[in-house]
């Protein structure tokens, strides 16, 4: 049933690592993968070539995300990667076009991806090889990022393009708005001790 060739021997530890990780909580999984202690990595997330991944403190990786670090992947501190998001740092396009898509093909191309600090990458996003996403950028869900994203911008679409730019003043005004609203909701809530916004209808 199990092959005993070089490729199988190389892939088997990664397969077993993914199986074992499904039985761990976020913090245990981060420790298991050797990520910073403050990392929260959800179930079914997959890291390819983990040795090429550099990730900052307080990052969140959503369920089913695939982080391909084979070409080099850097994720800055306080960045979230949405569920089922795909980050590619390699492409087999040329090996497909030339009918040379065999294991070990020398036509695989690798380019690093860099995602800055304080970024919010929505769910179901695809980030292509070679892309740099600037600090404090937001990528809306279902976007395909095929070129660099400037800092402090919101991008969306396929291909993703800039829809909004925001400065520190705008962010601070949003911080004040959300904190005030959450304080109001907690004051009306049956459980005022919780963090963030209490659930329920507080429109009255």
Automatic annotation (TrEMBL):
Cellular component aspect of the GO annotation: cytosol
Keywords: Transferase
Region of interest (Disordered), ranges: 181-204
Superkingdom per UniProt: Bacteria
InterPro entries per the UniProt record, alphabetical: Hexapep, Hexapeptide_acetyltransf, Trimer_LpxA-like_sf
CDD domains: LbH_MAT_like (cd04647)
Record's signal peptide: none
Chain intervals with Low complexity compositional bias: 190-204
Gene Ontology MF terms in the entry: O-acyltransferase activity
Keyword Transferase: yes
Matching Gene3D superfamilies: Hexapeptide repeat proteins (2.160.10.10)
Family label: Belongs to the transferase hexapeptide repeat family.
UniProt-recorded name of the protein: Transferase hexapeptide (Six repeat-containing protein)
Lineage: Bacteria, Bacillati, Actinomycetota, Actinomycetes, Pseudonocardiales
């Amino acid at each position: 049933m199990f092959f005993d060739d070089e490729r199988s021997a190389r892939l088997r530890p990664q397969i077993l690592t993914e199986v074992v990780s499904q039985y761990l909580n976020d913090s245990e999984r981060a420790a298991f993968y050797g990520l910073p202690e403050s990392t929260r990595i959800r179930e079914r997330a997959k890291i390819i070539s983990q040795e090429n991944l550099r990730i900052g403190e307080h990052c969140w990786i959503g369920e089913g995300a695939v982080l391909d670090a084979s070409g080099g992947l850097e994720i800055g501190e306080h960045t979230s990667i949405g569920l089922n998001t795909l980050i590619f740092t390699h492409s087999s396009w040329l090996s497909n076009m030339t009918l040379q898509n065999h294991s070990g093909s020398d036509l695989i191309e690798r380019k690093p991806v860099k995602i800055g600090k304080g970024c919010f990458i929505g769910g179901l996003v695809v980030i292509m090889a070679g892309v740099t996403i600037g600090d404090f950028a937001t990528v809306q869900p279902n976007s395909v990022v095929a070129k660099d994203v400037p800092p402090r911008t919101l991008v969306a679409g396929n291909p993703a393009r800039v829809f909004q730019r925001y400065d520190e003043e705008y962010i601070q005004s949003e911080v004040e708005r959300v904190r005030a609203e959450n304080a109001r909701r907690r004051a009306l809530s049956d459980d005022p001790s919780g963090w963030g916004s209490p659930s329920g209808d507080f429109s009255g």
